[in-house]
Write a structure and sequence with these properties.
It is a single chain. By secondary structure, the chain is an alpha+beta fold. It has 2 domains: about 1-90, DNA polymerase, domain 1 (Orthogonal Bundle), CATH 1.10.150.20; about 100-225, Cytidine Deaminase, domain 2 (3-Layer(aba) Sandwich), CATH 3.40.140. Helices cover about 55% and strands about 15% of the residues. The protein has 11 helices and 5 strands. The chain has helices spanning about 1-15, 20-30, 40-50, 55-60, 60-65, 70-90, 100-110, 145-160, 180-195, 215, 220-225; strands spanning about 120-125, 130-140, 165-170, 200-205, 210. A 5-stranded mixed β-sheet has the order 2-1-3-4-5. Helix 2 crosses helix 3 (about 40-50) and helix 8 packs parallel to helix 9 (about 180-195). The chain is elongated and about 65 Å long. The termini are far apart. The mean pLDDT is about 90.
Length: about 230
């Protein structure tokens, strides 16, 4: 019976995760440390005892074990996860932010400084420009661009960013975009739009020089041409 319920909860997570209540999320979290038991009552008792999810994950192991149904293994699981979440939150305060061209230029110049061959990177950010994920393609070849776009489509669908920024280098030293760069930028814009993300910029890097499709007006021109 419990296995069938757990499978239904997993289906709900994959189909509509936003619909899960705090209690349901905590119930599912407890699956890892409580096997073959109904974890819903324990989740309710934890929320009753500590007020909300923040309180649950901030509690000490001894406090957690005072709740019926929480043994040493479950207390350890909750406590360690809570401490990890706290450290991740602290790190997020100082995470990379790519909200304007100055921030983007500083970031890409440092990223591409060691490169002696062509490299392509996609930066996925949230609405405030916080970097969520970086997808890197080394040794870029024109005949593989289509395959790389198929791969990046899968990444964007998984990460669900608000914005996407593409960056690649020209080891030759000339940052002026090529016709191939323009075609790739136009294709990427269509791909992002179809996946609910906004292509914010495409930049070309060479040493300290960075060419921005957005700030040059080239991105708007490509969109109008599409």
């Amino acid at each position: 019976m419990h296995e069938g319920h757990r499978n239904r909860m997993r289906e709900k997570l994959f189909s509509s995760e936003e619909a899960l209540t705090d209690c349901e999320l905590l119930e599912m979290f407890l699956y890892a440390s409580i096997g073959r038991k109904n974890t819903n009552p324990t989740a309710h008792r934890l929320l009753d005892a500590f007020g909300d999810l923040t309180g649950v994950f901030a509690a000490t192991p001894r406090m957690l074990m005072s709740v019926e149904g929480v043994g040493p293994e479950t207390a350890e699981h909750i406590c360690v996860s809570g401490r990890l979440l706290r450290r991740l939150t602290d790190e997020a305060q100082g995470r990379v932010r790519l909200y304007n061209f100055a921030e983007l230029k500083q970031f890409v110049v440092a990223r591409f400084a060691p490169c002696r061959t062509e490299k392509l990177e996609f930066y996925m950010t949230d609405r405030s420009g916080g970097l969520l994920y970086t997808h890197t393609v080394c040794d870029v070849h024109e005949d593989r661009v289509g395959a790389e776009f198929t791969a990046i489509a899968s990444v964007i669908a998984g990460v669900k960013p608000a914005n996407v920024i593409a960056a690649h280098n020209h080891p030759s030293g000339n940052v002026e975009p090529s016709a191939g760069d323009d075609a790739a930028a136009a294709e990427l814009q269509k791909l992002c739009a179809g996946l609910g993300a906004r292509l914010c910029d495409c930049v070309v890097v060479s040493g300290e020089e960075v060419y921005s499709y957005y700030y040059s007006g080239r991105l708007d021109a490509l969109l109008r041409r599409a």
